[in-house]
Design brief:
single chain; mainly beta; Lipocalin; 2 domains; four-stranded antiparallel beta sheet; elongated
Amino acid sequence: MRLFSWSGRFPGWRGNARIGMTAVLVVGLVMVGSTDAARADSLQQLMEQVGPEYAKAYASPFIHTFGPNQNSNLYSTANIPFGKLVFGFGVKVMGTYMNEEDQSFRKVVQIDDLGVLDPDNPDLDGVSGTAVMSGPTIFGSTADEDIGQIDFYSNGVYLGSVDGITGFWETRWAPLFAPEAYIGGILGFKFTLRYLPTMSVGDLENITYMGYGLQWSASGLLDNFPVDLMVGFFSTKLDVENTQGLGQDKLFDSEANSYFVAVSKSWPALTVYGGYALEDSKMDVSYYYEDENFPALTQQVNFSVDGRQESRFTAGVTLDVLVDLNLEAGFGDLTTYSAGVMLGF
């Protein structure tokens, strides 16, 4: 492990080393115990090696894509009967396409006065410190040579660096799938439920997913209107259990909400639809970071990140041939593509 690599000899080098270590304590940065630790077997094991500032930058693309995914493919038509009971079930599959810059990050954290952390050390009084973090994000390179890094500076003087972590899954696609069921047809209302029993997917353990929504169509009141009109909302939660067993129940606790209006035009076996939505999403991250080499850095990490996307336009098409098959694209800060197969009665 490369803990500090000195690029030269500076006056008062012990004080400078203390500054660098204190800067790590302030911002909760990464301290990796060994090279093997950087090649962790699961996402949680990777996250457990970093403090909150590094983790926010590392995990943000993961957080930003889950909101658009959860808010996708919420409808495939704006037509809901007024006096005919309908119900159905099927599955929806979504994928958000990320920008290339979402696969890496660079973050600078400034510490104004390190002296407040150790009043007994005069070398720290009034001294500012800077930590420059860079490397792959959760969706970035998994190669060992592309491991992240944190460089430390004080008053423009380079102090040293420590290793970060590699990416977890090198891709620009973030997928999600969800079973779905609906019932409706009374006065133009339809209730939709998405649910997954607790399960493990790859290296993510004990995932719980549930979403519900309500839609209302004005089609029964507008018989001669050229298109069908609908309004609705949908709310979803996706949780990933924390398996450390140290008091944190959830590694990721995600929530997303969408409020939308939609229109559609139907022909035999074909419906074209579109809509506009206001949406929000948020993910809370919680785990315990323990540093065996520097026990003072051990801490409970808790932080929240709001989703990037606040609105979207949706365009889609539904084919009704034995089953309802719909294809959809959502355009906002990120682009999400989705498909659904529903058997309705």
